[in-house]
């Protein structure tokens, strides 16, 4: 299972964060999709989960943060 808790991206220049307090669970064996209009923050959520972009919140993969796997 993948858990994302409180993912929030860093504020952009004079703009609000692209992602603000996103939380969800993706259960093993099920298809989970991130849906939204272009620019809604789908890619940003994935980058935050993988530690490729700075921000707040935490993502767990099988109960552990990615850097502990």
Number of strands: 4
Radius of gyration: 12 Å
Number of helices: 1
Biggest sheet, in brief?
A: 4 strands, antiparallel
Proportion of residues in β-strands: 25-35%
Total of domains: 1
Question: What's the shape?
Answer: globular
Helix content: 10-25%
Q: Can you give the mean pLDDT?
A: 93
* Computed structural class: alpha+beta
- Unreliable residue stretches: none
Mind explaining what this structure looks like?
The chain is of the alpha+beta class and 69 residues long. 13% of the residues lie in helices and 32% in strands. A hairpin with a 2-residue loop joins strand 3 (55-61) and strand 4 (64-65). The model has no long low-confidence stretch (mean pLDDT 93).
Q: Summarize this, please?
A:
The protein is of the alpha+beta class.
């Amino acid at each position: 299972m993948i858990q994302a808790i409180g993912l929030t991206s860093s504020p952009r220049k004079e703009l609000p964060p692209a992602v603000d307090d996103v939380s969800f669970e993706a259960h093993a064996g099920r298809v989970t999709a991130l849906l939204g209009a272009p620019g809604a923050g789908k890619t940003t959520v994935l980058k935050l989960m993988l530690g490729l972009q700075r921000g707040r919140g935490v993502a767990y993969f099988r109960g552990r943060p990615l850097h502990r796997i």
